[in-house]
């Protein structure tokens, strides 16, 4: 599937240009191929094209692909995870991008203790304040981090947000900037937490703006691997 290789080359050029505009290194930005709307065959082709990170958001489909492809990628669970699905994904997904409530944190920690597994988590923050989006409000994040700081099987490695789809991606800049500023503020405060290095933000429509504002993980679906829904 040569179109994936062509898309990847174009995306990497765009990342390099965005990093040049913002004084960053392209090496600091990881591409997560969002494969929830493509087949196992296309997911495998993405790996063969040089993608090392795969993102899935539905437990049943995600586990099926993991069972086939396993250690050939670093796996990211990027969707809303129900607590009763934790047992299906823990140990398979290195990163969870959608930690947004204590019940989920407790279940991840409990299952992690049973299996000896630490899950690296991004705390999901609803910067835009949209009622249709999951995530903590920016004001809730500090207390949430303190609440989970004693849970040894969770490593809070960063923050995640989603911006609305708009025709002009520049209109999303304030959202990505807000997440970066929140991360920087949390790092300065004397609260127990992990490094919070990562910023998971930016998708196919707006990833260049997200990179300019500090994204370390960008989640790309249609612009990279396409969309095979009929």
Low-pLDDT stretches? none
The rounded distance between the terminal residues' Cα atoms is 19 Å
Within the largest sheet, what's the order of strands? 7-6-5-4-3-2-1-8
Quote the beta fraction: 15-25%
Give the topology string: H per helix, E per strand. Answer: HEHEHEHEHEHEHEHE
Write a structural description.
By secondary structure, this protein is an alpha/beta fold. It has one domain (about 1-220): TIM Barrel (Alpha-Beta Barrel). It contains eight helices and eight strands; from the N terminus they run αβαβαβαβαβαβαβαβ.
Q: What layout of secondary structure does this protein have?
A:
Blueprint: H1 2-22, E1 30-34, H2 40-48, E2 53-56, H3 59-69, E3 74-77, H4 86-89, E4 95-99, H5 102-115, E5 119-124, H6 141-148, E6 154-160, H7 173-188, E7 198-200, H8 207-212, E8 217-220
Parallel strand pairs: 1-2, 1-8, 2-3, 3-4, 4-5, 5-6, 6-7
Q: How would you summarize this macromolecular structure in one to three sentences?
A:
The chain is of the alpha/beta class. The chain is 39% helix and 17% strand. It has one domain (2-220): Alanine racemase (TIM Barrel).
Highlighted features:
alpha/beta, 39% helix, TIM Barrel
């Amino acid at each position: 599937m040569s179109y994936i290789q062509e898309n990847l080359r174009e995306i990497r050029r765009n990342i390099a240009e965005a990093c040049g505009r913002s004084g960053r290194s392209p090496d600091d930005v990881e591409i997560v191929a969002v494969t929830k709307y493509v087949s196992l065959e296309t997911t495998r082709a993405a790996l063969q094209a040089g993608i090392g990170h795969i993102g899935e958001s539905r437990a049943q489909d995600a586990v099926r692909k993991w069972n086939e492809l396993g250690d050939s990628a670093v796996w990211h669970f990027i969707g809303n995870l129900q607590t009763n699905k934790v047992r299906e994904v823990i140990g398979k997904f290195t990163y969870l991008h959608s930690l947004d409530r204590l019940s989920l944190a407790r279940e991840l920690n409990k299952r992690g203790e049973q299996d000896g597994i630490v899950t690296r988590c991004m705390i999901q923050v609803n910067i835009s304040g949209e009622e249709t989006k999951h995530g903590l409000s920016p004001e809730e994040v500090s207390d949430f981090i303190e609440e989970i700081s004693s849970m040894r099987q969770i490593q809070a490695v960063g923050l995640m947000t989603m911006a609305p789809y708009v025709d002009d991606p520049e209109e999303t800049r304030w959202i990505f900037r807000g997440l970066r500023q929140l991360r920087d503020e949390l790092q300065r405060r004397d609260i127990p937490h992990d490094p919070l290095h990562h910023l998971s933000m930016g998708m196919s429509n707006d990833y260049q703006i997200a990179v300019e504002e500090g994204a370390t993980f960008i989640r790309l679906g249609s612009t990279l691997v396409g969309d095979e829904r009929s």
